[in-house]
Amino acid sequence: MPSEFARLTILVVDDDPTMRSVITSALRAAGCNQVRQASNGEQALNIVRQSHIDLITCDYQMAPVDGLTFVKRLRELPEGANKPVVMLTANNRPEDAWAGRELKVSAWLVKPITPQAVIKRVAGVLGLNVGTTAMPEDVLTELADAYEKRLPAEIQTLESIAARLPARPEHFNATIQDLAKRLHVVKGQAGTLGYALLGSVAGEVHDVLQEADRLLHDDDSFRPDLIRLVESGFKVMRLIVDRNVRGSAGAVGAKVLADIAAFARPLHARIVAAADAAEVNERQRRNHQSDVLLAAEQQRLIVERRIRLTQAEFGEKAR
């Protein structure tokens, strides 16, 4: 790897410790020994205030504030106004990219990621020559082995949370939000650490649940289909983990993913259409309220003006 990495100090910001470790391992394998880590935006801002940082990698979907909010606050600091930022995302939505341009995000990296992709993107932003040196194959071996060991427990946790959907309908919306956040993590980790099929299935379910959160506060008609999607998706994820299916599983994996997508994607499209329509209706309602208030205010001003004119007229007659 190029010697230029040895002189860099890079800050890795992510609320997922596994992804922080993935990126840190890749950077260190490339020769970058000065890697700082932060689990949230506030920690990262404090590090930027106190230390020299050459570049920041940042996850888009963090808590308590997301990646773009963090970058907005970063740009308000003298030390961070022009700091290069590589944003990692599992969504790859055009609207996020446009918002990133406004905040001078240097580059985006879509999950799942590889160590090679991390190094190539960082080098590209900083104008470094990565050469042709290959990344060591065992960079993520330890992380992948640890991930394999904890996967059964993580799937069991997801199944336990999903069981609340039909059992506790009063908490349906909160449960959907919880599952979406957890599936976002699985989507990023699984593909990065060798479980591409698991990550893809988690991604199909995640994308629907994330979009459904826009709508469920006002429309519960999608609840049965959402429960069906979660149950079928989690059944497939359980089989993948129980059989320790790594990679994409070839033609069989493609068929499994196609079956999930055949239900998930039309459902996603219907939810998007309904949510967009609900937002349009809400804007129209607010505009109508504004028009009514404006008309009432105009009428009030007219009445007040007539009263003043009448008072002035009586005053003239009295004199």
UniProtKB/TrEMBL annotation:
The Response regulatory domain, residue ranges: 9-126
One Pfam family, short name: Response_reg
Modification sites for Phosphohistidine: 184
Domain HPt as annotated: residue spans: 136-244
Positions of post-translational 4-aspartylphosphate modification: 59
Signal peptide positions (record): none
Highest taxon of source: Bacteria
Protein's UniProt keywords contain Phosphoprotein: yes
InterPro entries in the cross-refs: Bact_response_regulator, CheY-like_superfamily, HPT_dom_sf, Sig_transdc_His_kin_Hpt_dom, Sig_transdc_resp-reg_receiver
Gene Ontology biological process terms from the UniProt entry: phosphorelay signal transduction system
GO-annotated molecular function: protein kinase activity
Keywords from the named record: Phosphoprotein, Two-component regulatory system
Keyword Transcription regulation: no
Protein name: Response regulator
Taxonomic lineage of the native organism: Bacteria, Pseudomonadati, Pseudomonadota, Alphaproteobacteria, Acetobacterales
